[in-house]
Structures are given as C-alpha cells and as structure tokens.
Amino acid sequence: MDFIIKNENKIIFVILSVIVFIGIYLCFIGGYGSDEDTLPMIHVFEAKLNGGRFVSSRFTGNPVAELGIGFLSYFLGSFAANLATYFFLLFGLLIFYLSFNQNKSLIKINLFIFICLTSPILFFDNLEPVDYSWAFFFFSCGVFFLNKKLFELSILFFGLCIGARINYVLFVLIIILFYEFNEKISFRRRMSLFVASFIFGGLFYLPIWFDNSFGLSWLTAGRPTDQGLIGLLARFLYKVYISIGYISSFILLFFLFKEFRVIKYIKNIKVLLLLCLANLLIFFWIPAEFSYLQLFLVIISFIIFSLNNKKFIYLICAGNLLSWLIFVSPIKIIYLESEYCAPKNAISASFHINLEEGFYQKYLKSRDKIKCWVDGSTEKEIKILKGQSLK
Questions:
Q1: What pLDDT, on a 0 to 100 scale, did the predictor assign at position 226?
Q2: Residue 33 in this model has a pLDDT that exceeds 90
Q3: 334 - beta bridge partners?
Q4: Is 314 helix (H, G, I), strand (E, B) or coil?
Q5: 328 bridge partner residues
Q6: Percent of the chain with pLDDT over 70
Q7: Which of 133-137, 187-191, 232-236, 356-360 has the lowest mean pLDDT?
Q8: How far apart are CA 167 and CA 113, in angstroms?
C-alpha cells in the first residue's frame, strides 16, 4: 500500500498510457465502425469530389466533419479517419483543461485525461469516424483562445465547431456570454463575438439552406416521441444514468452532495453548469445517441477532478473501468425488433438486474455492424468491409 501511495502518479501515467495505446490499436482494427452516419458522411465528400453534387448525410449535415472524415476515408482509409477522431478527443481534452485550469502540471493533466478516458462513452464512441470529437476539439480551441483574448482565433474555431455539429451553437453562445475573464468584457463585445462566430459557422450550412428553398425544416430531426413525454423522460434518465456509469452514478451523487459547498469555488463553475444544463436539455429533446452527452461528460469529469478528492476520483475511475469488462443492467428493455441490423425501438422496460458484456466486448462485436449497410458485392464495398482507402 505504501508503494502505491508513493508511486500513484507513475501508476496513473502507466495506466493512462496503456489506455491511450489500446485506443490506437482499436482505431487500427476498428474499420469503418458501427455508426450508421459514417458511410453517408463519406458519400458527401465523394459526391463533391466526383462531380460537385450537393448531398447531406443527415438532417443538418455537419459539413466540416463530413468533408474531414470523407477526405481521410477516401484517400487514407479507416485507420486514418479513426485515429483523427480519437486524437481530436485527446487534444480536445488537453486544451479544454488548459482553458479552465491554470495549473499546467503534467501530473494534473494526466489525472484529468485519465478520468475522461475511463468513461466508456467518451472512449469507445470516439474510436470510429463520427463527428462528436471534431466539434469538441474546435470548441475547446475556441474557449482557449477566448481565454487568451485572441478573439479573432476564437471566432475561427467557434465557427468550425458549429460547422462540425450545429447544436454547438448553443454552447458557443453560453461560453461567450458567461465565461469569466480577469477583466470585464462588455455585453456588447460578447454579443459581437457570438454574432461573428454564428455567421462564420452558419456559412457552412448555406448549401443545405438553399437546397431546402430557404426553409428551416432541415434543422429538425427524428425524435422518439411515440411514447409521449413519459417515454422521453424515461429514455433521458436511463441514458444519462448509463452514460455516467451504473456504479459511478451513485458514487458521483454521494460525493457531489458531500462536497456541494466546495463546488461553487471552482473557477468558471457558472458557465460549466450552464453548459451541462444546455447539453442535458438538448438530450432531453432528442434522447438518442449516448454521445450527444459528450460535453456534459467532459464537464462532469472536470468537476470531479476539481474537487481534488483522490479517493472520490479513484472510485469513479474504478467504476468506469469495471464497466469496460462487465455491465450490470438494472432494467430489462423489450425492443420492437430483435434483428441485429434493425433499428432499436424500445416498447417497454421493467426493473430486472442482470449481467451483460462490458463496453469493450460490445465494441469488438459491433465491428461487424458495418455489414448491415454493405455486403461486399462491389469493389468499393469490399474496401469498406476491409477498412481500406476508398480511392
């Protein structure tokens, strides 16, 4: 025990290094992943490259990530696209930390990133070509330059962030209006920064706006409203609980209640809590992918880190890592369709504790889901199945 206490920083560094390299390995073997949006995003780039046609991968499109992921996939293959997405998460976490904490100690930085990477949602959902970490990275850069009062650069990165995921426009508004500087910044100046960021980010969406005859229906998305408000609330609470962690959730609630008076002393806690609230409200509106909560999970990890309670931190991380190996589900969910490739549509749920495979095993098994969209009948589809460059 004395050895562990004396060498805890080295142990954290070693474990963190192992996690980082596991991520790189999974990027290498992961192929084009299990997200149904990946191939449509690649198609957007191919359509523009091979004729300049306008297509959109989803309702809003998110053009920056479509072009970036499409370019990497087309010319370099799945490993490059996966690795870029993963590195955007890692560097985004580093820059986010530097934007909100003045202690640049490598030990502190390692501990914060360690907390984040043990989260299975933050880790596994950013090992394949999706746009969540792209938006988060640009957002973190925007906050960093905002903190340094390099406003032109902050506008640039906030615009790219909005171009990568349009829902970040709300987060950009909150961070610009409520971020606390060492000196007072007028409301008028803050609003001018947001308007500039909004206009720059909005330029990426002009093609889809034109394509919809200046209508705004493309801003909507399919919502699971078939079970009404109660159904939305149930999905919301269950998925937030799972995202935080089935064990970590209880540990988090206990220590946040215990340390409630300390939380208010965290620098910029107001803007952090407002960002959390905004992210939760968006997720309540459409409680679909767990990764919609990524910014919320990063901020919760930062608050955990900022409480500076090592016992609390290690318990949270241990609970997160345990979920990699085994998942304890407190609810049995019945789905309308049972086929592997069919969209999951929950029709009922009941309290029933059972053991399931952990997130690591689920990730490995989900690598075959790409076969739901391609069967290898063409040369291009064979390349997709093998994770190769599509050029």
A1: 66
A2: no
A3: 348
A4: helix
A5: 355
A6: 91
A7: 232-236
A8: 24
- What is the share, in percent, of the chain residues with pLDDT greater than 90? 57
Tokens, residue 149: 């009062």
φ and ψ at residue 332, rounded to 5 degrees: -95, 120
Phi-psi region of 348 (alpha: psi -120 to 50; beta: other; left: phi over 0): beta
Single-letter code of the amino acid located at 287: P
Residue 1 has pLDDT above 60, yes or no: no
| pTM as predicted | 0.93
Q: Number of helices and strands (H, E) in the chain? A: 20, 2
Residue 177 pLDDT > 90, yes or no?
Answer: yes
2's tokens: 């004395």
Q: Which residue has the tokens 């955007």?
A: 88
pLDDT of res. 214: 84
Identify the burial level of 201 via C-beta atoms within 10 angstroms of its C-beta, where 0-12 means exposed, 13-18 middle and 19 or more buried: buried
Higher pLDDT among residues 132 and 103, named by residue: 132
- Produce one character per residue of 209-221: b if its CB has 16 or more CB atoms within 10 Å, e if not: eeeeeeeeebeee
For residues 355-367, one letter each, b for 16 or more C-beta atoms within 10 angstroms of the residue's C-beta and e for the rest, the string is eeebbbeebeebb
CB-based contact 296:281 (threshold 8 Å): no
Non-local (6+) Cβ contacts of 210 within 8 A are none
Residue burial 40-73, b: 16+ Cβ < 10 Å; e: rest:
bbbbbbbbbeeeeeebbbbebbbbbbbbbbbbbb
C-alpha distances in Å from residue 284, one per residue of 201, 236, 344? 24, 6, 18
